[in-house]
Amino acid sequence: MRILIIEDERRSREFLARGLAENGFVADTAEDGQAGLYLAEDRHYDLVVLDVMLPVMDGWSVLRAMRAKGIETPVLFLTARDTVPDRVKGLELGADDYLVKPFAWAEFLARLRTLLRRGPARQAEVIRLADLELDLPRMKARRGGKVIDLTAKEFQLLSLLARRAGDVLSRTLLAEQVWDMNFSTDSNAVDVALGRLRRKVDEGFSSRLIHTVRGLGYVMEDRGHGHD
Ligand code: CA
Q1: Backbone phi, psi, residue 5, to 5°
Q2: Which of 41, 47, 71, 198 is deepest in the core (most CB within 10 A)?
Q3: Residue 117 DSSP class
Q4: Which three-class secondary structure state does DSSP give residue 9?
Q5: Region of 70 on the Ramachandran plot (φ > 0 left; ψ -120 to 50 alpha; else beta)
Q6: What is the pLDDT of residues 136-147, one digit of tens each?
Q7: How many A from CA of 118 to the centre of ligand 1?
Q8: What is the value of pTM for the model shown?
Q9: Which residues pair with 134 in a beta bridge?
Q10: pLDDT digits (tens, 9 = 90+) for 108-156
Q11: Among 22, 70, 79, which residue's Cα sits nearest to residue 50?
Q12: Ligand 1 is a single-atom ion; what residues have CB below 5 A from it?
């Protein structure tokens, strides 16, 4: 489980990161709202712990930007201001829970575990792109109504590409997110996996959905017929 902590106060940030690590979580940290948003966009997190008062970009704006970009990661808000209007505002923006500072570690951990059990509330169950259909809960892929036989890793790779359709995803990002490891840049493991996936998804169809962007990575999009 990977948690992102966006908190400008150093002692609080380090306390949370250390506590999470001791409880078996992987914790990344950001010191301001913008740096936090970059991380939330770039990597997959199971939960974001988000302070309200932050430099550069406040917690409200980070949450709004995340939801606008379709990032539905559960968010636990940390706020020093225990007022009703703040709570209402945060919930309207899509925060999943609140914790008012100062809080006890046990309380934080309990809230965090509840949110992690619940998972992203509004995540799409089925992704569609052209005639491709991904059934996420069942891990089934169909194209033109026909089942595509994929390994678990291939399904993960395909759903990542499909979720971020139109975005060019680098080999490094794919390696980190799907295999949870860093491939050296000259490794062709990602290319080999992508090649295999492309054959399964695109071969025999008039339009290709997975495209290579030379020197950058891969993008999934429907460009109509006859183009690569
Ligand atoms: Ca703060």
Answers
A1: -110, 120
A2: 47
A3: H
A4: coil
A5: left
A6: 778 899 999 999
A7: 26
A8: 0.54
A9: 127, 141
A10: 999 999 888 886 655 567 888 999 999 877 889 999 999 999 998 899 8
A11: 79
A12: 8, 51, 53
